[in-house]
Design goal:
By secondary structure, the chain is of the alpha/beta class. Helix content is about 35%, strand content about 15%. It is built from 4 helices and 4 strands. A 4-stranded mixed β-sheet has the order 1-2-4-3. α3 crosses α4 (about 105-115). The relative contact order is 0.13.
């Protein structure tokens, strides 16, 4: 289940990720949305991605070029690493579409392809 949240404080955002498996931060430039301790100490998180390419990072402790880096038991993607994965996934999906003229890639199939590209 994907769930957007509104959490005006760092502590509210830390509480909001409790039980989450993936966090994707797409907030305003120059705003730290989640501190490092919050994601590092999460028991449930598996993947943390930050799409903010303007310093400081939207998620503290995520590097600009992190591309599937394993840290604190989580897979990390920074904005440049995230973009590279998106482009690789796009190319892989387009290549699959050339395998047959009746192939349709739904969200589940695209997710399945993406999972093979990440640790």
């Amino acid at each position: 289940m994907v769930r957007a949240i509104e959490a005006p404080s760092t502590s509210a955002r830390a509480a909001a990720i409790d039980g989450a498996h993936i966090v994707l931060a797409t907030g305003a430039a120059g705003v730290v949305l989640l501190d490092a301790a919050s994601w590092q100490n999460s028991v449930s998180l598996e993947l943390v991605a930050d799409a903010n390419a303007s310093p400081p990072a939207g998620i503290e402790g995520i590097g600009m070029n992190d591309r599937g880096l394993l840290s604190h038991g989580k897979i990390l993607f920074g904005p440049l690493g995230f973009g590279a994965l998106k482009l690789r996934l796009h190319r892989a999906c387009i290549a699959r579409l050339f395998e047959g003229n009746d192939l349709v890639l739904d969200a589940e199939e695209i997710y399945s392809i993406a999972k093979t590209m990440v640790g």
